[in-house]
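ingest -> validate -> predict -> emit
validate: passed (alphabet ok, no gaps, 205 aa)
predict: started
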Amino acid sequence: MRRAKRVLPLVAVVLALGVPLSGCGSESGPRAGDVSTGQESGAGSGKETGKEKGMDMQEAAEESDAMLDAVLEGIDPEVQWAHGPTTTRACGVTRRRTVMTVVSPELRQTFLDRAETYWRTNGYRIKAVNKDEKFPAVYAVTRSGFGVSVSFRGKGQAFLEADSPCVKESEVAAPASEPNGPAYEGVYPLPRPNVRSDFWSGDGG
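emit:
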């Protein structure tokens, strides 16, 4: 049964969650030699922005949710996740997912590779890849201007974000999709990874 939708304020929230999508995924900041910029086709010129399409913040949030749902489904074996906070800015919205499964250092790049493979297969352009050994990340952009990322931060926890282009201002409801584990409603910050996986929490053997 779906939870009743909650309306979130349209005031931008300042949260200590790490870097935004324009950053490079490391809590200690990017390392200049670790980040490569993708030049692949897939989000070519002539793209239509959210405002040009008449999209509002709620519609952008729903599209962001669909993108995050899809990439999580593309990561196999499945990991447990919970919703992170939704934030808004002057004309955009960001949705977040926090991975509760322990991903071992040896498999963090494998985790990112599966997200990247999904994005490439579905026409996203890879914007940047952070090869930092401790805090790797991958960033992509859609033809419609949404930015998406998967990054590893403190304690090796994986975070997924979807950042909308500029859209029309509106109220934004909480995500409708149910997490595949505890919801942690009203809990912030969320716990560190606490779910063991035979695959992700080991060495991949």
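The longest helix spans residues 57-73.
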